[in-house]
Amino acid sequence: MTRDELLQRLESIEWNDIEFKEASWEVPKSALSTVSAFANTAGGHLVFGVKQAKGLFIITGVTDADQVQNTFLGQVRDINKISVFLPIDGTVHNLPEGTVLAFYIPEAARQQKPVYLDGNPKKAHVRRGGRDDTCTGDELLRFMRDAAAVRYDAEPLEVDISRCFDEESVRWYRARFASSNPGKDTAADDTAFLRSWGFLVEQGGVLRPTRAAILVLGSGEYVRQVLPRMVADVQLYRHTSAQYDSAVRWADRLTVEDNLIKAWQAVVDFYFRHSERPFAVDATTLRRDDDPPDYISFREAAINLLIHQDFGDTTRVPVIRFFRDQTEFFNPGDAFASREQLLDPGDKEVRNPSIVNAFRRIGLSDQGGTGVRAIFDGWRKLGFVPPEIENHKAEKSFRLRLRREKLITEAQLLAQAQLGAHLSEEEADVFAYLTRKGRIDLTDVKALTGFSGADARQLVQRLTVQALLVAQGEAGNVFVLAEHLRARFPVEKTEYSQGNQSGSGEALTSGGAEQSTAQAAAQAGVGQEKLVQSLVQLTAIQWQIVGLVDVPRTILELTAHTGHRQRAHFKRQHLEPLLAGGIVRMTKPDKPTSPNQRYVLTEAGVQLKLWREQQAASHTEEQP
Measured in whole angstroms, how far is the alpha carbon of residue 595 from the centre of its chain? Predict the structure, then answer.
């Protein structure tokens, strides 16, 4: 942690990734609880020499910095005090108010959790907000399952293999396997096939099914013995997510207590029944040749929910909730990979490797860790804001939200045009997201564009050159709006948009809520507020003008086409705002009153016209 980063954090509230302690003379007794909490969740900074008073953080300094630092580092290296060795380094900041010690506590590896104190697993902690909470019994069990050398889904079960499998599911799986792997199914019967591909293992001279085998292909009664809760709970609501309340009844619901193959088939059928644009798929592959992007994103998200859940957690149920403005996926069990790693290609460590491999063999699970990328790619093709991921390390849960909210809106295009910036499609997307959030990182840029890390960094460098954003922090991976733009684009204060809705209330793929950037656009002008405010949203006449001036037009042509007779009023009320807003330009700007003057779209105007046409086409496709 640099000096500037420390001073910046002192001005904010204490939160889940930083803890301040006074520690003037000695290491506080609660310091190791914070180490355990950070190590069991996502890591964080522990800072000595700061006290909290009346909601403010005040630097008091550490009197003997060397002694306190040595004592603390000695404690965290004592196996009798903390269960694992953590590579903790300290940074000393000599400030005018006193000496401050900042230690970074890394997240422990999966196999090392839970990290506990005094040789007692009951003294393990997790970080919630600004607190260090002692783990509950259920939380300890979740950590221990994930840390086990033999994975939970690979454990053999003492059940009768002649009765525990669902014949229809096995038959479907073998047909799908043969289609995906020509020539590889040479087994004489189902038992030989199941043994060949790891569903059956020999234990004491007897063939036993693994837990994965029962969960993927088992008959209902055996699945319910292994998993005494629903495999998935799918709910459809006729209103928006902001209106959701646990007391509000769903419009339709699917509860699944069967194997994962049947669960997947039932979830897909539910999706098709309620889809605004129904289409048929092959019964074996559950695909069609031209899968639409919204189905691709849903399919990958639903499969991830089914195969990556914590099957040892019987207290929480995976839930899919369809709202008018978004679809939410909740899973018991966090992802072992970070959000950045999930968006990068390559295999990741997973909770249920046997189940993942079973789905991967038949082409239903992503190859090379591309599932989450496919979700993001599909949503990006639809022009929506990127999916939101909450990988909660403390409660060990995973949430994914697919918000049907357009990233680029009319107001956003008008605001960008008024800035006079020349942005590519990807740059415009990144800038639009930045104006919403006020802060982005390279992972956000990759999510918005699908670019690699190197290409994402080049993009933000181009935006930096155009004075639209600046780097923040020592690593240079976080970016904020340039200072001169922050007043023009106030960061959104609500979690979800309350914008206009379109499409059927029951449709799973209906059009989305467009978050208005009207306030941002209204503030974007300098010295021309009235003209800029009129471009928060174009009038019907202004849209007519945009449609006409894709080729140069005289003002007489424009008034004639729009049915106006008073040229001065037309120019002042409709044309000049488009000129001031950078949508339309004069062909002879140095001679504004020239009789040969023509008006034509700027580059930004062309983009706006194209956007309008795309919206119209999209709306037509969504009609039932």
Answer: 55
DSSP 88-134: -EEEEEEETTEEEEEEEEPPPPGGGPSPEETTEEEEEEEEETTEEEE
Per DSSP, the three-state class of 20 is strand
Report cis status (omega within 30 of 0) of the bond before 114: yes
The residue behind tokens 């996926």 is: 329
Number of H helices, E strands in the chain: 24, 22
Residue 535 has pLDDT above 50, yes or no: yes
Name 410's Cβ contacts closer than 8 Å, sequence gap at least 6: 537, 538, 608, 611, 612
Q: Quick one: DSSP state of residue 387?
A: P
Write the DSSP symbol of residue 504: -
Please give the Cα distance from 31 to 21 (Å, whole number). 8
Question: Residue 276 is inside which H or E element, if any?
Answer: none
Token readout for 542 is 């202004």
- For 436-491, give the DSSP string: HHSEEEHHHHHHHH---HHHHHHHHHHHHHTTSEEEESSSS-EEEE-GGGTTTSPP
Indicate yes or no: pTM above 0.85. no
What 8-state DSSP symbol labels residue 515?
P
Instruction: Give the rounded distance of the alpha carbon of 495 from its chain centre.
Output: 13
Per residue, the 3-state secondary structure of 523-552, as one string, reads: CCCCCCHHHHHCCCCCCHHHHHHHHHCCCC
- d(C-alpha 443, C-alpha 379), whole Å: 16
Distance CA 184, CA 186 (A): 6
* Residue 280: per-residue pLDDT: 57
Q: Does position 116 have pLDDT exceeding 80, yes or no?
A: yes
d(CA 451, CA 468): 20
Instruction: Output the pLDDT for position 104.
Output: 94
**What is the β-pairing status of strands 319-322 and 232-236?**
parallel
Beta bridge partners of 202: 207
CB atoms within 10 A of CB 356: 23
CA end-to-end span of the chain, whole Å? 55
Dihedral sign of CA atoms 474, 480, 481, 487 in order = negative
CB contact at 8 A, 270 and 331: no
Burial (Cβ within 10 Å: 0-12, 13-18, ≥19) of residue 493: exposed
The Cα–Cα gap between 72 and 197 comes to 51
* C-alpha triplet 444, 448, 454: angle, nearest 5°: 70
d(CA 350, CA 151): 10
Contact present, 44 and 16 (Cβ < 8 Å): yes
- Contact yes or no for 81/40 (Cβ under 8 A): no
Round to whole Å and give the CA distance between 116 and 410: 53
Residue scoring higher pLDDT (423 or 536): 423
> CA 362 to CA 375: how far, in whole Å?
19
**Buried residues in 211-232 as b, exposed as e (16+ CB within 10 A):** bbbbbbbbbeebbeebbeebbb
Q: Which residues contact 215 (CB under 8 A, 6 or more apart)?
A: 153, 223, 226, 227, 259, 260, 311, 355
- Residue 343 main-chain phi, psi, to 5 deg: -85, -10
Q: Indicate whether 507 pLDDT > 60.
A: no
- What's the rounded mean pLDDT across residues 142-161? 93
Q: Identify the helix (H) or strand (E) that includes residue 14.
A: none
623 pLDDT more than 60: no
